Amino acid sequence: MDQSTFFSFGGGVQSSALALMLAANPEVFDNLGYPLPMHIIFADTGAEPDYVLKNVDNIFGILAKEGYKTYVVRARDTILDECPSSSGRGISTPPYYTKSSAGKIGILRRQCTKTYKIDPITAKQREILGYKYKQKIPSGKANLWLGISVEEARRMRSSVNQWITNRYPLVDLRLDRSACGAYAYKVLGYSVKKSSCFFCPFKHQEEWVSLKRDNPDLFDKAVEFDERIRNLTTFGKVNNPCYIHRSGLPLKDAAGVGIQLSLFNQPEEECNGTCFL
Description:
The protein is an alpha/beta fold. Helix content is 34%, strand content 13%. The radius of gyration is 19 Å and the shape is globular.
């Protein structure tokens, strides 16, 4: 394990499998040519479902027993605190859908991953390495493991920070999501669910329907949040009503209506590899 190598743990299928391999079968990484991470970091947005947080706690317990150092980090405010009706400080940064008076659907710029995932993880890396905010760090100082699987290789990116070298061990091992899910199930005895905020605008239509059917309390929570972000025009930031469902309908009415696109089917809105893993 290397003190300058980190793992951005997302709490979902791929990153769970990768973490379990580190704990139970580290020999699979012997031929990768880069070091194993000492530090595993999970960024909690404040809107993760309970089943994701329970999975994080479980896997972090497994990792800790094997000598890995685990951390849960958060932004100054949670993604829920950013909602105007709760704090009044400004609009929340997820890519809400908007609808004009003519019925045209638009989408706001997505900033949530950077604000609630990347920035807190980067700040923790700096702290561990011993560098202050904005202090210059030598190029190539750290490695960062990301749990992107082989079928998602198009999501691979170089880090915007020259001191970080992104590593994609699942791609290098040619492992896909199905293989990761099967491995995690074998080790844990339960199926790991997808990690995303409970109100994420990029949920599939099928996910909304399933959420309403299988987890009505969480669906009701998403409905309540959807109502809270409806009128952001009050804050001078958005000209049209906002919704978390791409149909431009209130979520309480939209489950079962239209087709909800996946995040990974929208080329303009690709995930940059630090959440939903």
